[in-house]
Amino acid sequence: MRVAEIFQSKQGEGLWTGVVSVFVRVIGCNLRCWFCDTTYASWRSEEGEVMTVEEIVARVLAYGDRHVVITGGEPMLFSELIPLTRTLAEKRMKITIETAGTLELPVQCDLMSISPKLSNSSPWGAAEADLRLHETNRNRPEIVRRLIATYPYQLKFVVDAPEDLIEIQEYLATLGNVQNGRVLLMPMATDVGQMRAKSEWIVPFATQRGYRYCPRMQLEWYGNRRGT
Fold first, then answer.
1. N or C: which end of the chain has fewer CB within 10 A?
2. Sign of the CA dihedral with 167 first, then 155, 216, and 78 last
3. What is the tens place of the pLDDT at every residue in 18-43?
4. DSSP secondary structure string, 7-48?
5. How do beta strands 67-71 and 49-50 pair?
6. How many CA atoms lie within 13 A of 74 on its CB side?
7. What are phi and psi of 212, to 5 degrees?
8. Are 34 and 13 in contact, with CB atoms under 8 Å apart?
9. pLDDT < 50 regions, the chain
10. Cis peptide bond N-terminal to 73, omega within 30
């Protein structure tokens, strides 16, 4: 696997917010979201180093933490994720996998963090090939249904505008039996000001339906920078 970075930080998003974790960020993605905030780990990145499963596990264990977050990019692109998660589980690590829910592998994890991409992610104005690839891949509810039936999960939606809330409701209806408390609404934001402004209309919507508002706490703690 080509790895962009391995670092220790606090989880800033989701049900395990605040938990000190080791983050493994792999390189490569099958989507082309215009708002991607980790382009150094995306399809166009030329960074990183190729690491074996054994090398990744050794780096993770060296930090001495119990929680590990495998993110990207899109980790589900890589078959090495199967032995990596199996080995980490054998070492009694608590594993989160962050995925867009467009691909699946028989992995081991304690929290499947699924971030389905709404129409607000589409790279309108980009090359036709990129737009077509994104639109073909981004919406795979049949895979999301299998993931939430198999693993402890959270569904994390990036919200940019009020109309996105309608799309989220329509999307959830296609999934069927979803626990409202595992639906997280996260503002699209790169700074604290943007996040707080959008929270004013996201929070009431989430509260009324039993969903969770999901701030990007890493922006509060560290600002918008790499390695956090």
1. C
2. negative
3. 999 999 999 999 999 999 888 888 77
4. EEEE--SSTTTT-EEEEEEE---S---TT-S-GGGSTT----
5. unpaired
6. 23
7. -115, 135
8. no
9. none
10. yes
Distances (CA, A) of 58 to 50, 128, 215: 14, 42, 32
Token pair 């919200």 in the structure block, residue: 159
**Residues with Cβ within 8 Å of residue 137, at least 6 apart in sequence:** 30, 31, 102
Report which residue type is found at 155: L
Are the beta carbons of 10 and 65 closer than 8 angstroms?
Answer: no
**How far is 195 from 190, CA to CA, in rounded Å?**
8
Residue 51 DSSP label: -
Q: How many CB atoms lie within 10 A of CB 133?
A: 17
Beta strands in 47-118 (DSSP E): 49-50, 67-71, 94-99, 111-114
Strands (DSSP E) contained in 153-224 are 153-159, 183-187, 212-213
Long-range CB contacts (within 8 A, 24+) of 104-109: 104/76, 104/143, 104/146, 104/147, 105/76, 105/79, 105/81, 106/82, 107/76, 107/81, 107/82, 109/70, 109/85, 109/151
Distances (CA, A) of 41 to 30, 34, 89, 114: 12, 14, 25, 18
Give the pLDDT score at 37.
84
What residue type is 160 in one-letter code? D
Q: What percent of the chain has pLDDT over 90?
A: 85
Q: How far apart are the first and last CA of the chain?
A: 21
Please give the Cα distance from 111 to 95 (Å, whole number): 6
What are the angstrom distances between the C-alpha of 92 and each of 11, 66, 97?
19, 7, 15
